[in-house]
Amino acid sequence: MHIHKHVFFFLLIIFITSTTVQAQQISGTIIDSSTNNPIAGALVTLHGGSVQVFTATDGSYSMDVSGIDLLIIGAAKGYFYQSATSSSPASGIVIALDPVPLTDNSAYEIRPPTECGGCHPKQYDNWINSPMAKAGFNTWVNDIYNGDGTPGGAGGFVYTRDSVFAHSNPNSECASCHQPQSWIDSPFSALDSNVNTPTPSVQHGVSCDICHKVADVDVTKINSPGIFPGAVSYNRPNSGTQVQYGVLGDVTYNIPSLMRASYQPQMRAELCAACHQDAADPNEDHSYSGVISEPTYLEWLASDYANPASASFADCVDCHMGASPDNRVCGVIVTPPRPVESVRNHMIEGSTPAYLENAVDLDLQVSSTHSQINVQVSIHNNQTGHHVPTGVTVRNMILLVEAWQEGNDPLTDSLLHTGTQSIHELGGIGDPAQGYYAGLAGKFYAKVNHDINGNGPTFFTDATGIQFDNRIPANQSDTTNYTFQLPDHQADIKVRARLIYRKAFRFLVDAKNWTEDGHGQPLADVAAPHFGHLMESAETTINAGTNVIPFLSFKSLIMLFALLLGFGLVSLLKLRS
């Protein structure tokens, strides 16, 4: 048979290409060692983390890798990591994963973070200065719970004194997030405010063992508060080898009688939801079916950021645990050549300046007519994977829009706002120069709950409904419009829009006389010039002197008309004479 030489070369290229691809491939199956059943959705990783794939429904996998003596690691939730060594090409490589035995030994003592820091000094140094480490004693939490966190803490709402549940549920659930160690040992315990002789729960806050011993988070109970029994399951060993859960795909260490690693993908989002997604329990039956207080997890889940197929996909770890400057995980075991971004910083930041100033974008558009300035402000939540603001319901944002003559004070000499869009009274009623912005041009953003009598805002435990929730969801925008009256003379007009973040409603800050946040840092909410943290700002100038006539008042126009009429009469008399 005669084959044209071009066709021959084409077939040869196809053969070489397919052979090359085949030569780079390792395939096989991930199975359960106790049942030999295939494991669907298991993570398969080349040691070092540069190549990762997931198994199909039949447990099969295929990786395009080349080399000799390649270490391939299989991982799945509920199993210990297991590895196999192979050179490519290879097929039929079976990796059998051992199930993690689930125990919950109440006699197990949560290990102190210093113990973990012996082998993980970098992670410990990150954590010790984090909000997680300081969660055990937060003065604001104590002020809200029993009024003893600061000298003025008894002002405003105090749960143990003012809540409708103060007598039936005096302990509340504050400790389930802020002092989880005590809740693991003794569920439904009260918040411990003793800082003179602090317990380990107060000292350690949310520590290493609190997160890395979580075997499962039941997403059907995601609105339960914190480390709630049945919603968050711990694996506390009886004796012998401890299980240590993590999210890296290529872990191989197994130290008999000391520690063995297990893959727990829920540590990337669902574990965070344990304390950043909760609801009220109006029926006191532990169903937590009432008004949602902290909706951050479900906000993320409803956004494009939670879709693995989306280009925007990012979870809590991606955003709130920045990439480490190096890929070192352990100070004892040699770290494989992992990509640096796979190792995360354990500082775990949230509403810090860096995050607040990179949360949204603000656009300011200004135009004028003969008598007024028209202002349009758009806020785009294009950098945050959940609503802004989010978290506990006292968090809020204020958009403040100002117009004033250049050289004057924008607060005391602002132009008359003739529009209807103004800041809600929760922006603070009082002197604007002291940060009380209610009634000024702008908008107040928050989730505000009401109690059984329709009064709000109320603490989330007592909430029976939502008065309003105008926060901005992820990848959405909010646009508002404002008008200001122009002066009746030539002037350069300044227009400015500021977006200001506040940690609490101003009336609550005043009632408790807070000047510091819950961790003892100066509180921006009461500090000039913004009285909150400035997230975004935009400013422009309109030159009102470019066209005199449009800026004349009605009275001036009458005077001009009379003047022109006078000139006309004089001219007419001259003509007649």
Instruction: Summarize model confidence as the mean pLDDT.
Output: 90
Please give the oligomerization state of what you see.
Answer: single chain
Q: Distance between termini?
A: 120 Å
Q: Considering DSSP H and I runs of 4 or more, what fraction of the residues is helical?
A: 10-25%
| Structural domains: how many | 3
The global form is globular
Largest beta-sheet characterization? 4 strands, antiparallel
Strand % is: 15-25%
**Spatial extent as radius of gyration:** 32 Å
Low-pLDDT sequence parts: 1-23, 546-557
Q: Which structural class matches the secondary elements?
A: alpha+beta
Please count the beta strands (DSSP E, at least 2 residues each): 23
Quickly count the helices. Answer: 15
What is the strand arrangement across the widest sheet?
3-2-5-6
What brief labels describe this structure?
disordered N terminus, 577 residues, 23 strands, globular, 23% strand, four-stranded antiparallel beta sheet, Immunoglobulin-like, alpha+beta
Describe this structure in words.
The termini are far apart. The longest helix is centred in the last third of the chain and has 23 residues, at 554-576. The protein has three domains: 5-97, Immunoglobulin-like, CATH 2.60.40; 113-342, no CATH class; 353-546, Immunoglobulin-like (Sandwich). Mean pLDDT is 90; it is low at 1-23 and 546-557. By secondary structure, it is an alpha+beta fold. It has 15 helices and 23 strands.
